[in-house]
Write a structure and sequence with these properties.
This protein has 362 residues and is an alpha+beta fold. The chain folds into three domains: 116 residues, PAS domain (Beta-Lactamase, 2-Layer Sandwich), CATH 3.30.450.20; 74 residues, Orthogonal Bundle (Helix Hairpins); 149 residues, Histidine kinase-like ATPase, C-terminal domain (Heat Shock Protein 90). It has a five-stranded antiparallel β-sheet. Helix 7 runs antiparallel to helix 8, helix 8 runs parallel beside helix 12 and helix 9 runs parallel beside helix 10. The protein starts with a helix and ends in an 11-residue tail after the last strand.
C-alpha cells in the first residue's frame, strides 16, 4: 500500500502540493497516509502528527451531530463517495467553514479527501444577507415614518393641553403617556438611523483622544452601576485613522452602554486599543470593549447584528445593526467573543488609514 501511495503521489506530486484546497490520503483502515500543506494550516497540526493517526479524531472536531457524521460514513462506505459541510474551530479558536468531499480511488483503493475552506464565501454571504436585511428595513422605514410621526406629534400636543387642566391623578397618567410617546420617538429615530443612507464626513483624528472622550462621558453612568471603566493603550504608538468621528463616537458609546447594561451586579469594563497588521500587511487599529456581564449564548452570536433581534428585555434590536453598518462603512470588521456567565468582548477592527470615503447605498 505504501508503494502504491508513493507511485500515486509521485504521479500527481505537483497537483498534490499546490492544490488550492486541502488533500488527505486515507487507507481502507482509516489511517491517514499523507496530507498537503493546506491541511496542516486548516487543522493547525503538523504533517508528522497527522500521518499515521486515524482519521476519526479529525471528523470528531467538526461541529456536526453524531447522526450527521454516522450518515456521512455510511454513505461513503456504501457509495464510495460522500460530502459534508461543517464548521470547525482551529486551535486558535477561529471558526472556519469547510466542505469535505471523500472519494474512493478505484486504482489504489485509497480514500482521497478534499477539504475546501469556504469561510470567505460564508462571510460574504452573511454580509450580503445583512445588506439585504438593511435594504428591506430601509424601504419599510420610508413607508411608515411619516405615518407614525404625524399622529405622535398630535398626541404629544394634546397631552400637553390636557396637563394644564388635569388633576393630580390625571397628571401622573399623562406623564406616563408622554414618557411612552418619547420612547416611541426614540425607537423610530433609531430605526431610521439604521435603515437610511448616511453621508459620512471623513477626517483624520486620533483614536486615543476619541476613546478618552467616550470613557470620560460614560464613566459617571458606569459608576452609578458600581462598574469600573478603564482604558488600556498597551504598546499603541500611532492611533490616527480617517473616519467619521461623530459616527464612531456613537458606536463606542453604544458599545460601552451595552456592556454596562449587561452588568447589573457591577464589575469591570476594559476598553483596549491595539495596533497591528493583516495578512496583506495593511495596518489597522483594534478597539475592544470587554465586559464581565451575562455573556451571549453561542446560538445567538450569529443573530446579534440582525435588525430587531435582541436578548434584552425591552430592547429594540436596532443598536447593534447600526454599529455594524457604521464599522462596515469604514472598511472595518467586528469580532465577538463571549462566554455565558463570564462576559463578552467586542473587537472593532478599523483600517489605520482610509483614503476615500466609502459610498453606502441602501
Amino acid at each position: 500500500m505504501v508503494l502504491v501511495l508513493a507511485e500515486y503521489k509521485k504521479k500527481f506530486e505537483h497537483v498534490f502540493q499546490f492544490y488550492s484546497s486541502g488533500l488527505i490520503f486515507i487507507n481502507e483502515k482509516g489511517i491517514i497516509l499523507e496530507v498537503n500543506s493546506n491541511i496542516e494550516e486548516m487543522f493547525q497540526t503538523s504533517r508528522d502528527e497527522l500521518c499515521g493517526m486515524n482519521a476519526l479524531p479529525l471528523l470528531e472536531r467538526l461541529n456536526k451531530s453524531f447522526e450527521d457524521k454516522k450518515t456521512f460514513i455510511q454513505t461513503l462506505l456504501r457509495d464510495g463517495k460522500a460530502e459534508l459541510f461543517s464548521e470547525i474551530q482551529d486551535n486558535l479558536g477561529e471558526l472556519k467553514y469547510i466542505r469535505i468531499r471523500v472519494s474512493k480511488q478505484k486504482d489504489t483503493k485509497l480514500y482521497l479527501t478534499e477539504v475546501h475552506d469556504e469561510s470567505e464565501k460564508m462571510s460574504m454571504k452573511k454580509r450580503l444577507d445583512h445588506s439585504e436585511s438593511l435594504s428591506t428595513l430601509g424601504q419599510l422605514a420610508a413607508s411608515i415614518a411619516h405615518e407614525i410621526r404625524n399622529p405622535m406629534t398630535s398626541l404629544k400636543g394634546f397631552t400637553q393641553l390636557l396637563y394644564k387642566t388635569a388633576n393630580e391623578d390625571g397628571k401622573r397618567y399623562l406623564a406616563v403617556i408622554n414618557d411612552e410617546l418619547q420612547r416611541m420617538e426614540e425607537i423610530l429615530t433609531e430605526f431610521l438611523q439604521v435603515s437610511k443612507p448616511t453621508n459620512y464626513k471623513f477626517c483624520y483624528f486620533e483614536m486615543k483622544d476619541l476613546i478618552q472622550e467616550v470613557v470620560n462621558f460614560m464613566a459617571p453612568q458606569a459608576l452609578l452601576k458600581n462598574i469600573n471603566l478603564s482604558i488600556n493603550y498597551g504598546d499603541t504608538k500611532e492611533s490616527e485613522i480617517s473616519g467619521d468621528r461623530s459616527q464612531l463616537k456613537q458606536v463606542f458609546m453604544n458599545a460601552i452602554k451595552n456592556a454596562i447594561e449587561a452588568m447589573p451586579m457591577g464589575g469591570n469594563i476594559n476598553v483596549n486599543i491595539a495596533e497591528g497588521r493583516d495578512i496583506q500587511d495593511n495596518s489597522f487599529l483594534c478597539v475592544s470593549v470587554e465586559d464581565q456581564g451575562y455573556g451571549i449564548e453561542e446560538k445567538n452570536l450569529e443573530k446579534i447584528f440582525n435588525p430587531f433581534f435582541s436578548t434584552k428585555t425591552g430592547g429594540t434590536g436596532l443598536g447593534l445593526p447600526h454599529i455594524y453598518k457604521v464599522i462596515e462603512s469604514h472598511g472595518g470588521t467586528i469580532e465577538v467573543d463571549s462566554s455565558v456567565g463570564k462576559g463578552t468582548v467586542f473587537k472593532f477592527i478599523l483600517p489605520s488609514k482610509v483614503q476615500n470615503k466609502p459610498i453606502l447605498t441602501i
